UniProtKB/TrEMBL annotation:
Location relative to the cell: Cell membrane
UniProt GO molecular function: hexosyltransferase activity
Record flagged with keyword Cell inner membrane: no
Location, primary (coarse class): membrane
Family listed: Belongs to the glycosyltransferase 87 family.
Designated name of the protein: Membrane protein
Chain spans, region Disordered: 468-493
Species of provenance: Streptomyces fructofermentans
Keyword entries, A-Z: Cell membrane, Membrane, Transferase, Transmembrane, Transmembrane helix
């Protein structure tokens, strides 16, 4: 074991769910249990667990690999093994050798509707896919190639989350063992953006704002959601007076995004703009509260109206997060606000694809590393994962009506929404009551905060401004709530 091992926080010592689960493997480890077995570091263990769970997720797609993607629309839904990847191999022109963003597609789509870096990822996988054999065989190979590339992304995510909180590496098991992570990883290409975002969070935790910005810009070039992390970071740096570091991060993000996008923007402007126009023109779709409203109330909301209201709701959430940041009794941790802002985008958006849960899993593990709350939320997401496929099975099985009717699917959406809101609520509670924060109970301030960790506040509002305190010199009462929620001891930080 490392010489610093005694300083590591062990979830089996502070989390009753982790302690109970560890009985399956012989109970909580002692401080000297693995002396001499230095190869089995937390990073390696968690990376291997993540790869194993990813492989199980691939096995779960086996019914579709053997024919469900090709023979009959409903079987890929009844087996809950649907993936966009094989369908888009031919549907977006990769089978025909079309170049994304430059070559027009047949039908209404015209151009590839993905951000540039994701399009590059898809194209590289197409280059690695042999063009011989039947189209079914090519689609199978294309899915396998993408799965291999996405598995590398999964390993990066697990390693980055494990290393972000130096004293809490075992929190990475939340990501590695998340059932929704295994089930949704090969539905689409979201893991690329998630991996880049996780790497960016790691760089910020190491006080490397330029590297953070570069990686976040690349993540935004693969998916839009990482852009929202700059908002809470701005307010945190405002409260701590860290304008130089934020400016460095912002320049890095803008620069890397431009390097990826400008060549396509100039050479193929119509193809480049497709992702943005498609996002605006897309109507109310699966998984959103908008769909429940339109179905239950029989509302016919125009897409422009939904876009406007959703944007306003997101702005309200941003203002709320900013107010929470500036008025909290102690400066919130970066991971907490990152989780809240991305969750707000998911909750207010007009569509929620099942793989979007991947955006939140690493952030949730850093924001609220508590197994009970994490598993409650994951149970809700697995329920939604099954619900959407059963609903699609119902709508595609004709008169047989195999699957979940509309009312059942609406309930699955509600479960997803309530599960996400629940996790948001406990994170907000941790911010307002920092003595209940699992990470801060172990003596840390903001291990994912980098230059913000232990920094002095220079601008606060409300009760927190009387007077502002150094984050690491908080002298109020601190309660260790123990494993069962009862005060075990009281001390000062």
């Amino acid at each position: 074991m490392s010489a610093h091992e005694p300083d590591l926080v062990r979830p089996t010592k502070e989390d009753p769910v982790a302690a109970a689960s560890s009985e399956l493997f012989g109970g909580p480890l002692g401080r000297r249990a693995l002396l001499g077995a230095s190869w089995w570091t937390p990073v390696r263990v968690i990376a291997l667990v993540a790869l194993g769970m990813f492989a199980l997720g691939m096995v779960q797609k086996l019914p579709c690999y053997d024919g469900g993607w090709f023979f009959g629309a409903s079987s890929q839904y009844t087996h809950a093994c649907y993936s966009d990847i094989p369908h888009l191999y031919q549907g977006r022109g990769f089978a025909d050798g079309l170049v994304p963003y430059f070559d027009k597609l047949e039908g209404d789509m015209e151009y590839l509707e993905y951000p540039v870096l994701t399009g590059v990822f898809m194209e590289v996988a197409a280059w690695l896919t042999p063009g011989s054999g039947s189209i079914q065989h090519q689609e199978q190979v294309y899915w396998m190639v993408n799965a291999g590339m996405l598995m590398a992304c999964a390993a990066v995510i697990a390693v980055c989350v494990t290393r972000t909180h130096r004293r809490r590496p075992w929190d990475g098991l939340l990501v590695a063992l998340a059932p929704a992570f295994a089930l949704t990883s090969t539905i689409n290409w979201d893991l690329l953006a998630v991996a880049l975002t996780a790497a960016a969070m790691l760089m910020w935790s190491r006080s490397r704002p330029l590297a953070f910005g570069v990686l976040l810009g690349l993540a935004t070039a693969a998916k839009l959601y990482p852009l929202f992390l700059l908002g809470p970071l701005l307010v945190l740096c405002w409260r701590a007076g860290r304008w130089r570091e934020f400016g460095t991060a912002l320049l890095g993000a803008v620069g890397s995004w431009l390097i990826v996008n400008v060549p396509i923007m100039l050479l193929a402007p119509e193809g480049w703009a497709k992702f943005y126009s498609f996002s605006q023109e897309r109507p109310i779709d699966f998984g959103s509260f908008w769909l429940i409203m339109s179905q239950r109330l029989e509302l016919q909301l125009a897409t422009e109206t939904v876009n406007t209201i959703a944007t306003l709701l997101m702005l309200v959430c941003c203002v709320g997060v900013a107010a929470l940041t500036l008025t909290a009794p102690r400066r919130p941790r970066f991971a907490q606000l990152a989780f809240l802002i991305v969750a707000a985008f998911i909750l207010t958006n007009k569509v929620y694809s099942p793989q979007y849960v991947l955006w939140l899993i690493p952030l949730a593990a850093l924001a609220r590393p508590k197994w009970r709350d994490f598993l409650i939320w994951q149970a809700c997401e697995v329920a939604y994962f099954l619900g959407i496929w059963m609903y699609l099975a119902y709508t595609t099985s004709g008169d047989a009506h195999k699957g979940l009717p509309t009312e059942g699917y609406q309930l699955a959406i509600l479960v997803h929404l309530l599960g996400t809101l629940y996790l948001c609520a406990v994170v907000v509670r941790d911010i307002l009551m920092p003595e209940r924060d699992v990470v801060r109970r172990s003596g840390d301030d903001d291990p994912s905060g980098g230059v913000l960790d232990g920094a002095e506040d220079v601008f606060v509002l409300g009760a927190a401004a009387h007077p502002p305190k150094h984050a690491a010199q908080y002298d109020g009462p601190y309660v260790d709530w123990g494993n069962e929620g009862e005060p075990a001891q009281r001390r000062s930080l």
